[in-house]
Each structure stands twice: as C-alpha cells, then as structure tokens.
Structure prediction request, 80 residues.
Amino acid sequence: MFSRIVYEDSSAFFTVVAFAFAASIFITISWRAIRMRRPQVEHLENLPFLTPTPACVRDESQSRSAHAGSQTTSEDTPLH
Prediction:
C-alpha cells in the first residue's frame, strides 16, 4: 500500500521550506535591527532600567562591606 509513496522528495521539500522559513525570519529581524533609528536603540538599551530598582539590590556594595566586617574566622566556629 505504501510502496508507491516517495519519501525522499517530500522530505527534501519540507527541509527546504523549513530552511527558507527560518532564514526569512532571521533576515527580517536583522533588517529591522540594522534600520533601527538611534533614539529607539537608546530607548531599548536602557529598557531594563526604566523600572525602579529595589533598595535591597541597589545597595549591594554597602551590604557587602557590612558583611565583610562580620565574617567569622575558623577559630570562632565550633567543630562538629
């Protein structure tokens, strides 16, 4: 029943169609990125920083220095 179906041609066709589809998406994204205007690039590069940063994340350098003074040495830790 399935002896008349040619698998090679159909698999090559789907491979070429899938490659053309993926290449067209890549080319479209690349073309839009190349043609992007400078104000839009500046807006997008600062996009993660538009939301306010929580205080616990913002003061990392201060919290590190506070923790550095309170570090324990091996003499202070009890042996188990």
